[in-house]
Amino acid sequence: MSRNNPDNLSDKELQQEAFDRLKKLGVATAVVHYSGGHDDGGADGISTVMADGTSGEIKQHYLAWEHVPGKGMVQPNGHPEEVKEEAELADLLVAPVYRRWGSFAGEFHVSGEVIWDVTKHRVIFSEDLSESYERHEEVEW
Question: Rounded CA gap, 16 and 113, in Å?
Answer without folding.
Answer: 19
